[in-house]
Amino acid sequence: MDRAEKFALKVTLVLLGVFTGLLVYAAKGLNIDVPTCITDVEPFTEGKLIQHAEDRYELHLLAKMWYFEPGEIEIPAGSVVDIYLTSADVIHGIKIVGTNVNLMAIPGAVAYARYKFDKPGEYLIVCHEYCGIGHQNMAGKLIVKPTTTARR
Ligand SMILES: [Cu+2]
Question: Global pTM?
Answer without folding.
Answer: 0.75
